[in-house]
Amino acid sequence: MSSTKRCRHITLAKNHVAHIEQCAECACISMHVGPLTVRLEPKAMEELLSALAEATKKTHLLSYTQAFTEIGKGVA
Ligand SMILES: [Zn+2]
Fold first, then answer.
1. Tens place of pLDDT for every residue, the chain, 76 residues?
2. Residues surrounding ion ligand 1 at CB below 5 Å
3. Cut 0.70: pTM above it
4. Distance between Cα 42 and ligand 1 center (Å)
5. Ligand 1 centre and the CA of 7: distance in Å?
C-alpha cells in the first residue's frame, strides 16, 4: 500500500451484504460489510474466501445433521 499515491478503488463485486473493491494503484482490497470496512492484501482475501467457504460448508452440514436429528425424533 503506497503512501505516495492516492488509492483509486474499482468495484470487484457487490451484493446486498458486501461491497469488494480493489485499488488500481496499490492492489489492496477493501471489503465493506455494513458499517465495517476491512482492508486486505489480495492473498489475504483468498485466505478469507477459503475460510468463508469452509465455514459455509460446515454450516450446511450442521443444518442437515440437525434436520436429520429432528426427523429421527419425529419432530420434523
Ligand atoms: Zn491504494
1. 545 789 999 999 999 999 999 999 999 999 999 999 999 999 999 999 999 999 999 999 998 888 878 888 876 5
2. 7, 23, 25-26
3. yes
4. 12
5. 3
